[in-house]
Specification:
It comes from Thermanaerovibrio acidaminovorans (strain ATCC 49978 / DSM 6589 / Su883). The chain is of the alpha/beta class. It has helices at residues 8-14, 16-24, 43-48, 58-74, 84-87, 110-121, 136-140, 159-178, 184-205, 208-218, 232-247, 283-295, 310-314, 329-347; strands spanning 28-29, 32-33, 51-56, 78-83, 98-104, 125-130, 143-146, 223-228, 250-255, 273-277, 300-305, 317-321. The structure holds 5-amino-5-deoxy-1-O-phosphono-D-mannitol.
Length: 365
C-alpha cells in the first residue's frame, strides 16, 4: 500500500502533484471556475457578499491563512480567519452578506463542527471544504467543495494541505471573477497559472535529495525558529508544525517582522533559523531579518528561489525552489519544509506515520 515508500508520509508527499491536478480537474479553465453541483450559489448571492470568514484547526487553519492573503488580493471581500476553538466562543457577527468557510481534512474535527453549527444557528451560509464526502461536516453544510486527495493515512497532513490550497484558490478565483473584482483578462491569466501548478509541484518534489542533505546537516538541533512574511508566513507556521509533530523538535514560527519583538532573544548558535524567503515583493524585508538573526550567530537555513545569489552570502544552507509568481509560492515552498520534517524525523528514529500523542482526527473538544 505504501507503493515502495518506507512511510505513508513519504508516499503522500510524493502524491501532491497528482492531488493538486485532481482537485483542479473539471473545475477550472481559462474561461471560468465551476465548483460543481454541491455548491448552490447564484450570481446575486456572490455579488451580495461583503465578508468571508475562514475557520479551521491545525494545518487546515494554515491553509486558511494562505487563503486570506489570496482572497484579499483577488477579491474586495473583508476576510477574517480564525481557529475553530476560538471562533466558536467569540461574539462573531454573521449577516446575509457573510460567507463562512469551514476547512477540515477529516470533516470530523469537533471544534470545526461546533463553529459551523454556531454560524448556522445565526443564519449564516456555510461552505465546507473537506476530503471526506460522507463526513459530518460534508453532511451539515449548505455547500460542499471536496478535495480530491484520496485517503491520507499519515497523521501529519501533507497532501490534504496541497488539496486545500487548490480548493481555496479555486474559491478565491471564482469569487474574484464572478463578482467582477478581477478583470477577466487577469482572471484568465491567473487560471492559467493555477493550471500549470501541478507540474511545478512535481518538479519541486524531484529535489528531495537536496532537502535530505539539509536534514542530515541540521537534524541534531533541538530548537528551531521558522520565519516568513506575506504568503510565506503561513508556510513557516506549517513547516514548524510538521517538524514538531513528527520529529518532536521544538520549532516556533513567527512572522519575520515580529522577530525583533521577542523571539530574537532566543537566538544563539544552537538555534537555527529556517527562513522561507522566495524572491517576492517582501524579499528585501525578510532579508533584513535574516541579517539580524545572523548577527546573533544563529545558523541560517533558507528556502530561497533559484537564481537568488544574494542569499548565498547570508545563509549557511540554501534549499532551492523554482521561481514562481508570488501568490502561488505557498504551493511550492511548503514542499521542502514537509520533506525536511520527514527526513529529520527519520534521522532521529521517530515514528513517522503515528507520532506520539496525536490522532488523525480530533473528535473531542
Ligand atoms: O481533519 P482536520 O483538517 O480538521 O484536522 C485539523 C488538525 O487536527 C490537523 O490539521 C492537525 O493539525 C494535523 N495533525 C496536522 O498535521
Amino acid at each position: 500500500e505504501k507503493d515502495g515508500y518506507p512511510h505513508y508520509m513519504a508516499k503522500e508527499i510524493h502524491e501532491q502533484g497528482t492531488v493538486l491536478r485532481s482537485t483542479l480537474k473539471g473545475r477550472l479553465s481559462e474561461s471560468g471556475v465551476d465548483l460543481g453541483d454541491d455548491v448552490h450559489w447564484d450570481g446575486d448571492f456572490l455579488r451580495s457578499l461583503r465578508r468571508i470568514n475562514l475557520v479551521a484547526c491545525g494545518t487546515s487553519y494554515y491553509a486558511c491563512l494562505v487563503a486570506e492573503r489570496v482572497l484579499e488580493r483577488w477579491t474586495s471581500l473583508d476576510v477574517k480567519v480564525d481557529i475553530a476553538s476560538e471562533y466558536r466562543y467569540r461574539d462573531v457577527k454573521i449577516g446575509a452578506d457573510t460567507l463562512a468557510v469551514f476547512v477540515s481534512q477529516s470533516g470530523e474535527t469537533a471544534d470545526t463542527l461546533a463553529a459551523q453549527r454556531k454560524v448556522r444557528s445565526l443564519g449564516g451560509r456555510c461552505l465546507g471544504i473537506t476530503n471526506v464526502r460522507g463526513s459530518t461536516l460534508a453532511r451539515e453544510v449548505h455547500d460542499l467543495l471536496l478535495l480530491k486527495a484520496g485517503p491520507e493515512i499519515g497523521v501529519a497532513a501533507t497532501k490534504t494541505f496541497m488539496g486545500q490550497l487548490g480548493a481555496l484558490y479555486l474559491l478565491a478565483l471564482k469569487l474574484g471573477w464572478e463578482r467582477g473584482d478581477l478583470n477577466p483578462v487577469e482572471a484568465s491569466r491567473l487560471a492559467y497559472g493555477l493550471l500549470k501548478l501541478p507540474y511545478e509541484v512535481e518538479r519541486v518534489l524531484e529535489r528531495d535529495g537536496d532537502v535530505k542533505a539539509a536534514a542530515e546537516r541540521f537534524c541534531g538541533y533541538d530548537d528551531f525558529l521558522f520565519l516568513g512574511r506575506g504568503f510565506s508566513y503561513p508556510i513557516a507556521l506549517e513547516g514548524a508544525l510538521k517538524l514538531k509533530e513528527i520529529s518532536y523538535v521544538h520549532a516556533e514560527a513567527y512572522a519575520a517582522g515580529e522577530m525583533k519583538h521577542g523571539p530574537i532573544a532566543l537566538l544563539e548558535p544552537n538555534v537555527p533559523v529556517m527562513v522561507v524567503i522566495p524572491k517576492d515583493g517582501l524579499y528585501e524585508k525578510t532579508l533584513s531579518n535574516v541579517q539580524e538573526a545572523r548577527a546573533r550567530k544563529s545558523p541560517i537555513v533558507a528556502v530561497a528561489s533559484d537564481g537568488d545569489d544574494l542569499i548565498d552570502q547570508m545563509a549557511d544552507w540554501v534549499i532551492r525552489i523554482p521561481r514562481c509568481e508570488e501568490c502561488f509560492s505557498p504551493f511550492i515552498s511548503v514542499i521542502p519544509l514537509q520533506q525536511f520534517a520527514y527526513h529529520v524525523a527519520q534521522l532521529r528514529g521517530c515514528e513517522i506515520d503515528q507520532p506520539r500523542n496525536l490522532a488523525k482526527s480530533v473528535t473531542v473538544e
